[in-house]
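Table S2 (continued). Query chain:
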Amino acid sequence: MSKSSIRRRATAFGSTGALVTATLMAGAVSAPAASAAPADGRGHPHARGWDKEARGVTIAAARAARAGVDWEDCDAGWNLPKPIQCGYVTVPLDYAKPFGKQIKLAVDRIGNTGGRSERQGALIYNPGGPGGSGLRFPARVTGKSAVWANAAKAYDFVGFDPRGVGHSAPISCADPQEFVKAPKA
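Corresponding output:
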C-alpha cells in the first residue's frame, strides 16, 4: 500500500465516521416517528420493535466506520470534477437486521482547504427528499460564497445519494397492484 493510499485511508476514517453516523442516524431518527405510540397512550414504541432498528444503527455505524471509505477519483459517469473523490458506504438494507443483506450508498467529498492543522471534521449534506441526490453538494458550494469558502478551510464537504437515488442501491418494491390482489384459492 502506497503512502498516499495510507494517508487517503486514514483521512477517510474521520470523514467516514461522521458520514456514517449522520447517514445512519438520519434513518434512525425518522424511524420512530412512523411507529410512535398511539394517541390513547396504549403501547410503548419499544414494544413494536424499533428498538431493534436503533441497536442496528449502532452496529452498522461501527462496522462502516471500521471499513472506511476507499476514496478514489470519481468515475467519469458521475460527472463530478476533480478534486472531488467518490466512494461507497455499506449499510444494512434493514437496520433491524444489521447482519442481513447489505447495500451500498454512493458518497462524494472534497477535503478541507485549510490543511491538517485547521481541519475540524466533515459537513454532510442530506438532500432531503424524496428522490434528491446530494452528490453534487461539494461541487456546488466550494468557491460559491465567502461563507462556504471559510467553512471549507476547516471542514470536508461530503454529499451522498440516499437509498434508491442516483448511484446508490436501487429500491426494490412490490408492484402495488400485486400487493392488493386476493390470494389464489
